[in-house]
Specification:
The protein is mostly helical and about 120 residues long. It has a domain at about 35-105: Up-down Bundle (AhpD-like). Helices cover about 65% and strands about 0% of the residues. The chain contains six helices and no strands. The longest helix has 20 residues, at about 85-105.
């Protein structure tokens, strides 16, 4: 019985010494608290594509290009939405983007393309 009490006391000491310290395995420290303008545009472009709101999508595509998103980046965003919102909405998003590109070309606004695609 005395041996059981000693073992249980040792077990309790070990238990409390191990679990009395705060566990920080789930804490994520981030220096960036806000999204960049490009990231906000990516979110808006994907959400309007998913909703099928082509009028607002056209506006956001223009604003995304003005914010510094490149043409190939926007195409990739629209292509990746098909897995989440379906192929027809993704295609309509791409068609809307092609209209935006044509409008910008006719207005004489230069479209920036990606020069290199980095594979990670």
């Amino acid at each position: 019985m005395k041996q059981f009490n000693i073992l249980s006391a040792i077990a309790m000491i070990i238990f409390f010494s191990l679990f009395s310290q705060p566990i920080k395995s789930q804490e994520m420290k981030s220096n960036d608290k806000n999204l960049s303008i490009k990231e906000k545009r990516i979110i808006r472009i994907s959400s309007y594509t998913a909703k099928g709101d082509l009028i607002r999508l056209k506006k956001e595509l223009n604003e995304g290009l003005n914010a510094g998103l490149r043409s190939n980046e926007i195409k990739e965003i629209l292509v990746h939405t098909y897995a989440y919102c379906g192929f027809p909405r993704s295609i309509r998003g791409l068609q809307t983007f092609m209209e935006v590109i044509d409008d910008r070309k006719s207005a004489g606004i230069q479209i920036r393309l990606l020069h290199r695609i980095l594979i990670c």
